[in-house]
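Predict the 3D structure for this chain.
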Amino acid sequence: MINPGNADEASWIVHTIPGFPKALRGYVFPPAEIQKGH
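Done. Predicted structure below.
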């Protein structure tokens, strides 16, 4: 169910787990933004 593409992963996470837009941003944002979030 998990696709290797970051965009696909984020899409299924958002559709599978409601209220996870922040996680979507973590997957789609550039590495610099991901480091800030983590």
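The chain has one domain: 1-29.
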